[in-house]
Amino acid sequence: SALPGLLARAPKAELHMHIEGSLEPELIFALAARNGVALPYASVDALRQAYAFTDLQSFLDIYYAGASVLLHEQDFYDMAWAYFEKAARDRVVHAELFFDPQTHTARGVPIGTVIQGLSRACADANDRLGVSGALILCFLRHLSEEDAFATLEQALPWRAHFIGVGLDSSERGHPPSKFQRVFARAAELGLQLVAHAGEEGPPAYIEEALDLLGVERIDHGVRAIESQALMARLAKERVPLTVCPLSNVKLCVVHDLADHPLPQLLAAGLAVTINSDDPAYFGGYVNDNLLALFDALPRWGAREAYQLLRNSLEASFAPQSQRAAWV
Ligand code: ES4
Ligand code: ZN
């Protein structure tokens, strides 16, 4: 069919990807050698073999270990530039990148090193690849709200270099309510607000993210499928869900793509988008996600493809003037 080509060539936005999750094993080993960092894996292949996850936590343990090779501004630049080159090939016209400053500041890397490296890659992606990039600072929810506050304050000298804040890491036992005050502070600063909710956590966490944090989009949100009332609300309010199909399979959130709740979410009128989450760990970039999904869902065609890609552009935080040129 013509669909794979259409999906690959159509302009799209990527709204849910963790830049540390784009570190390919080859780049992890190259940066480890460049920086003299010892890795607990003998080879690229041995590291890739470890990518067999049973849940979110089993992934996060390896993901934080991989990020330990990032020390200098150039390392953050090289990581983000490698992602933008792949995004451009996938016809991503706009990408909003999550980054986890606490993963780096805890190892003694200054937050300015992280933000400057990533921000310079965004500027170059815009100039050389025609991909507009923006940064969203994520708080690690397994750490305290006090630690999140300190991170936000440390980032303020670079306020102009990021557009919003998010919430990621271990969801269960760390509800959005834990971060109500720091999100209120971020809102005062004029930052956009998003949060991971309803990946492993219950539908109530999605409601908390909306009602207590005031988020504009929900990252994942697939467990909304368990609550008819919540589904109706998300559809009525057109709250975008940034869904990551290959991630959901790799972390055992869904059994396989053919069982994914996406068809029901889309049919119920939710503004769902397709994203890669941690592309180096979960089996591919945004077009790999789209192709695998449409392959697993034979009832989906051009109508669904158009809707999903239009949703991604409309749900982005790009200025209205820029979005008007896309849709
Ligand atoms: C993540 Cl898939 C996922 N969920 C929560 N936090 C994350 N950080 C990176 N990937
Ligand atoms: Zn994520």
**CATH fold naming:** TIM Barrel
Strand arrangement, largest sheet? 1-2-3-4-5-6-7-8
Distance between the termini: 25 Å
Number of helices: 17
CATH superfamily: Metal-dependent hydrolases
* Ligands bound, unique: 6-chloro-9H-purine, zinc ion
**Spans where pLDDT lies below 50 across 5 or more residues:** none
User: Roughly what percent helix?
Assistant: 40-55%
Q: SS-based structural class? A: alpha/beta
| Number of spatially distinct domains | 1
Number of strand elements: 8
Largest sheet: 8 strands, parallel
Which labels suit this protein?
single chain, 327 residues, alpha/beta, TIM Barrel, 17 helices, globular, binds zinc ion
Could you explain the architecture of this structure?
This protein has 327 residues and is of the alpha/beta class. It has one domain (3-24, 74-315): TIM Barrel, CATH 3.20.20. The protein has helices at residues 3-9, 25-35, 44-49, 56-66, 73-89, 101-105, 111-129, 145-155, 180-188, 203-213, 228-236, 245-250, 262-267, 279-282, 286-296, 302-314, 320-324, and strands at 12-18, 92-99, 132-140, 164-168, 192-197, 217-220, 241-243, 272-274. The protein has an eight-stranded parallel beta sheet with strand order 1-2-3-4-5-6-7-8. Strand 5 (192-197), helix 10 (203-213) and strand 6 form a beta-alpha-beta unit. Helix 1 (3-9) packs antiparallel against helix 15 (286-296) and helix 5 packs parallel to helix 7. 6-chloro-9H-purine (ES4) binds at residues 18, 21, 56, 63, 168-169, 196, 199, 247, 277-278. The record marks 220 as: Important for catalytic activity. Catalyzes the hydrolytic deamination of adenine to hypoxanthine. Plays an important role in the purine salvage pathway and in nitrogen catabolism. Belongs to the metallo-dependent hydrolases superfamily. Adenosine and AMP deaminases family. Adenine deaminase type 2 subfamily. It is an enzyme of class 3 (hydrolase).
